[in-house]
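Troubleshooting log. The previous structure file for this entry was overwritten by mistake, so regenerating from the original sequence record. Sequence copied from the archived sheet and checked twice against the printout by T.R.
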Amino acid sequence: MLNRRAFLGASLAAGLVGAAERKNRIGRNRISAISDEVGTSPAEALRFAKEFGMEWLELRNVPGTKTPYFYMSPDMLKPAAAEFRDNGIRISFLNTSLLKFAMPGTEPLNRKGKETPEARAKREAREQVEFDNRTDNLRKCIAAAHAFETDRVRIFTFQRVENPTSLYPKIVEILEPMCKIAQEEGVRLLIENEASTNCGTSAETAAFLKLLPSKVLGTNWDSLNGTGLGEKPFPDGYESLPKDRVWNVQIKGKSILDTPERLDWAAILRALERDGYTGELGLETHYFDGTNMEKSHLSMTEIMKLVS
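Regenerated output below.
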């Protein structure tokens, strides 16, 4: 049995946790969505946001096009940012493709044995150019982040190789100067756990972050992304993450709808609140069967039920 002092201590601790969760409650005002997942044009994405009373959107490509927001020229950035601002929408996160290619000198698993020598040579030449331009591309992404008034920029850890952890020291060496630039510019870089990259699971991302304890390097947690590598997203994947470095969360449509991949988002939200998460949660519907717009509405309806 608990004595009175222990009982009061436990009750006080529970009360403090409860108070922290209530203070940090995740409501409608923290729900976002990737604009090109919920609309086939910027106007349609804005209508979607207004329909659900949303204050935020994430940006990747201009909806209905293959034009990335993050590489826009300055003369295009200004009107694009103004359109969101004039419609009362803030930008929570910039989903860039930085470092989502094979590191020069490595053989990505998804290409192994699938290329002709000519195709491989062309790809490697293209990736070498992208690697050489990584600093310039980072600065373009930072300029876009400033224009859209967000401080969070997604990055990756190169295409996955057979032994990902063997590349971590080299990736750290590459990211250190990028983090320095980001810190000088007042932005944060968020590694997305993506199965096709060297930080494919939450646990791998956590292990990598330990090697580079930068104040501007964290993670965009996409819960379902590690399942292809055998990771159980929640609680296992989530619990492996350093909670103070989770700065954006994405919700796949299949994880919120009635599918085999459905996750207990009510429990996930409680865990995020308990652990002091202060960022937004963005819907990435991610259906490729022609039903993406329909599934976006169904997914957001379910999300709003959870947070209302």
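Residues 5 and 11 are 10 Å apart (CA to CA). Archived copy saved in two places this time.
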